[in-house]
Amino acid sequence: MVKELMLEKWSGVVARVQIGATKEEGGSRSNVVKVGGQATLPFLFAEAAIPQKPVIAFEIWDIPPQEWPEELSRCYGGSLKDPLLWAKKCVEEFKAELLCIRLQGAHPDFGDKTPQQEAALVEELLKAVSLPLIILGSGDDAKDNLVLPACCEAARGERCLVGNAVQDNYKTLVAAASADGHSIIAESPIDINIAKQLNILISDMGLPLERIVINPTIGALGYGLEYAYSIMERARLAALSGDKTVASPFICFVGQESWRAKEARASMREFPAWGEESERGIIWEAVTAVALMQAGGDILVMRHPRAIEKINKYIDKLMS
Amino acid sequence: MFIVGELINGMYKKIGQAIKAKDKTVIQECALGQVKAGADVLDINCGPASANPLSDIQWLVEVIQEVTDQPLALDSSKPQVIESGLKVIKNKVMINSTTADQEKLDLLIPLAKKYNAKLIGLAISAKGIPQNKDQRLELAANIVANCAEQGFPVEDLYLDPIVLPVNVAQAQMRDILEAIREFKIISEPPPKTIVGLSNVSQGSCARGLINRIFLTMAIAYGLDAAILDPQDKELMDAAITAELILNKQIYCSSYLEAYRKK
């Protein structure tokens, strides 16, 4: 008997979002990153078009991260103290396609850098590297409402992806991103209803759905991964069935969540049975990334170069 | 829910006059208003008073196509009127409708195939209005069999159980609802189901309420589509909410607005 593939006919498609703008497009990036546009679930090539591959962004910080485990910090060495060097290392040594700068130093508890300082850093960063850029605030709403608009202006026309907008604090960021030609990360707390509502609120302000990326909030392997997976899957199924309000690409902060896991951080001395910590964290980050790509993750923000290398190989294999 | 907007019908005074006077503004405004309110398809019916339905339907199709590329449903009991409309169609199209009578099926199924149209099939024949669920199923099965024989995709067939006014045929309401559910098991892939909603409240008081409740119940029985007034906001809200309850749409605080944005 001939086996027949059961193919689904979807009516919807995920919105296409472009990060970065070339000189011709009003920016100064040497390449741009496109995500979205798929008309089926992840990697079901026989079913419908999947025009873009998932893409990994290297996460860099404006201040040296305090709580990164040794295994992670040592990959970047002294460059952790200088975001420009750090960015160049990602590009030159690790062949990054996309960078994600977290402005942690703007947080009142982590240095309280001024909006002017952060805007100047973004400007220098855009000069130092020619990759598209994701810009994240510090997580302090009041401060981010000052810092992010300044950074949006400094990066005007570069079509960055800026975040995070949340349900209780999105207006300032959306207005700034909208005025300066950037796209928005809309964050919801593993809650599909809020993800949808926030997308509607943002688009009601005039930012087209093609300029929104959903951050569904994820958990690492062992820390709620399956909740994130099911939320993403549900949103994607609705999107493919025609619900445009949830048809945004997903960004997943894989590095941030994976390296918080005890299994990624604990030393072999504490848990001899768990094996070498030098391998464990990398595997934790890579496994989390693989699962979230299968759930529909389009942009994975990651930390360890070796985990990133593994995932890039995996993506190439799946896409070929 | 797949909404067929019913307002472009010569039976309505304003539309009838506009057809007669060839006043395209009235028709175009009516078309756009329905699309804005959430109609997926616009029904077009010249009405009983049309002296020349063959040319009137062409005029209606053309003036509506000037302002929207939304699909159109050509509505007439006369196959030659539908065929006339099809000759000038550019938008996607639906044929409203065939009965279970062989001579109509033999005319309209090939036309639907030729124009890549969706087809509404009424569970009714020249013998009369069906009196119970079994008669509806028999008529519906006959339409499905004809579609299958002639190679028309059954998933593009919309079966209508024939909704009767509640004040005339109260005893049949349950049969009508159950027919909606059972039509789906006639074939695989299943046919779609549709109702001409307004008929349920014909001649009754509280028409809006009766329409809303019947539609909600029919949706619970698996109804796919309805011919109705999309500008009846309470009716549309009821339909959207019924689908929400059935988990066909993801809830959010603005779910009513979200549906209309789709």
Topology diagram in text:
The complex is a heterodimer of chains A (320) and B (262).
Chain A: E1 17-19, E2 33-35, E3 55-61, H1 70-76, H2 83-92, E4 99-102, H3 115-128, E5 133-136, H4 141-154, E6 161-165, H5 171-179, E7 183-187, H6 192-204, E8 212-215, H7 225-240, E9 250-252, H8 254-258, H9 262-265, H10 277-295, E10 297-302, H11 305-319
Parallel strand pairs in A: 3-4, 3-10, 4-5, 5-6, 6-7, 7-8, 9-10
Antiparallel strand pairs in A: 1-2
Chain B: E1 2-5, H1 13-21, H2 24-37, E2 41-44, H3 53-67, E3 72-75, H4 79-86, E4 93-98, H5 102-114, E5 118-122, H6 133-149, E6 157-160, H7 173-183, E7 192-196, H8 207-220, E8 225-228, H9 233-245, H10 255-261
Parallel strand pairs in B: 1-2, 1-8, 2-3, 3-4, 4-5, 5-6, 6-7, 7-8
Helix pairs in contact in B: 1-2, 2-3, 3-4, 6-7, 8-9
Defining traits:
heterodimer; A: 320 residues; alpha/beta; 11 helices; 10 strands; globular; B: alpha/beta; TIM Barrel; eight-stranded parallel β-barrel
